[in-house]
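Hi,

I'm pasting everything inline rather than attaching a file, because the server keeps stripping attachments. The sequence lines come first, and each chain or strand is labelled.
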Amino acid sequence: MENRKQAILRAVVHEFTTSAVPVGSQALHSRYFVNLSSATIRSELAELADLGYLTQPHTSAGRVPTDSGYRYFVDFLMDLEPIPDRVRAYIRDELQSAPADVEGMVERVAMTVAAVTQNASVASAPQGSQARIKHVDLVSLEPQEVLLILLLEGNLLRQQVVNTTEPATQADLTALTSGLNEALSGRASDEARRRYDGAPLGLEKELLGRVIAVLDLYEKGTENLVVHDGVRNLLRQPEFAESSRVHQVLEVLEETRYLTVLLRQLIGDSDLQIVIGSENTSSQLQGCAVVLTTYGPTDRLKGVLGVIGPTRMAYSQTVSRLQAVARGASDRMAELGV
Amino acid sequence: MENRKQAILRAVVHEFTTSAVPVGSQALHSRYFVNLSSATIRSELAELADLGYLTQPHTSAGRVPTDSGYRYFVDFLMDLEPIPDRVRAYIRDELQSAPADVEGMVERVAMTVAAVTQNASVASAPQGSQARIKHVDLVSLEPQEVLLILLLEGNLLRQQVVNTTEPATQADLTALTSGLNEALSGRASDEARRRYDGAPLGLEKELLGRVIAVLDLYEKGTENLVVHDGVRNLLRQPEFAESSRVHQVLEVLEETRYLTVLLRQLIGDSDLQIVIGSENTSSQLQGCAVVLTTYGPTDRLKGVLGVIGPTRMAYSQTVSRLQAVARGASDRMAELGV
DNA sequence: GTTAGCACTCTCCGGCCGAGAGTGCTGAAA
DNA sequence: TTTCAGCACTCTCGGCCGGAGAGTGCTAAC
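And the predicted assembly:
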């Protein structure tokens, strides 16, 4: 595409994302291309419309980017917007003061992304494909009730109350604990399975069974934490003036099970994924754009972090800020060993 | 107030909560009071309006309850709606399948309340005024890095990474653990403080300091978990058709710090609290009603559970279902020892 | 290739009007 | 004294109309 056409497409996208009003040839002439007459711009606009990058709400309205228009912009025209110092400092402060556990960190990350992008955000907890045990602990609650505490890689704590068939004192459990730790800590989940198969009937086997159950739950990811925040930001946009639009987005965000699948599906292998309007498979997200990246303390432990907003979104700002938060969060989590 | 006036007020509230349309004398005559002419009903309505319990959107519209009207209904006219078996079963299933930790349970409880009341819900984690330690555990991460795990009453796990001034092996830590457990488990937080004051300088004092820090955080409630769900249910109501109304409510719900204060303020001492429209101190909740109750595994550990919806809410249904979930959750949490 | 000029189209907004819903009042009946 | 039929009145809502304004596409000249 010729340079000038690209420049005009870029201008239309920029103008429309800030004003939310269809942009006409006159506005482009006075604000972007003073030495180009509106008539010339008009004919370029007509061609861009023929190419499918622009459309008009009605005959006598200005132009609006189509989904393909945004796509072209994102793929070829967008350059990342630098992040102001104030925003950078805000991100750093929020991440520094975040709780030192995964849950708290994920929530803080979602909150921060929502705040700096002024859109809705989603975040899933970093997770590896196989769980690794760091530490096991057993606490006697009642004579026949044991609280099993598992510390997984990423300082993830899991707990489960186990009703044992035989009574056990705290001393019994403490003895058992050191054996279990020796065998399991630093090992992946299949070690626990192996040991379970080999163990004789009794308390230890019983407990190992529950250890495996917890690991299974984690690995299947059915209990994977997904949070969202910043829906109120969407409501400031004219796209969401009728609340039925908000309703559709909320259906996706509040249905955690669905959201988990969606994120996993979308992120694929790339490190930055932008899905625009009709490219969304889910019907509720028509008219919305989703920007996703990954984050996590190590290469093996990765979660998804994303922004959801109207297709008329400040993509370059969103991407740079999203990535800044993702990098910051990854560093902070690595630092905390979370 | 005469019986008949009460009956008419009750009918107006009932009709308006289901239809969302101002109710006229004709509708009341044909659907509730067949042997009372619409003229008679009309004069009663006029008197109820004089008393401040009803109002009209405009001269030729039907009547709508005022906030005082709802207040009168709630205080004197409402009888709890029985809960259908289907709903009862749903509540039971959701609570049975909830995760066995506080965070998971709180989220599930909020989700269930939102689902069965078809409104937005809020829930705060049950919390006592003083923390009690059930168990302490220390895990060596690096030579000079220790993960401190605290199990509090309610099977609440807290963790913190501690950078120690001197290196310590896991064996050192294990030895220290048993001493700490002997001294602290089953004790309230002031015991930890006492012990900290008496301890000689060294690893133990260092760790005790962090234990106290964690307990402080918990007791000050600054980190108290508050979740919400079901905002999408509100969007089905005509009151929230313009999204600015939703925006106001979301500002309250998504601002966790604010929400915590609000809940604590509202719940006071009573076990059921209903706040209607202008009774709300916060301006964002004008036009909304909040129904709150408490729940928790023991008398000492109580959280707040609530419903937020339009003032035009099915109060009797909301109250009975909210209380059912609160009771169910309390029982389940007691059972799990959470 | 660019541009001024111009006719054309479509939305938006305010005003107008009739239909419909619901009220309050009045006077008669129970 | 209470109830109720009848009736005039008020107000909203939806459709319709027309003018203003914005922006376009086309054409002819530079």
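The two ends of chain A are 48 Å apart (CA to CA).

If the labels don't parse on your end, tell me and I'll reformat.
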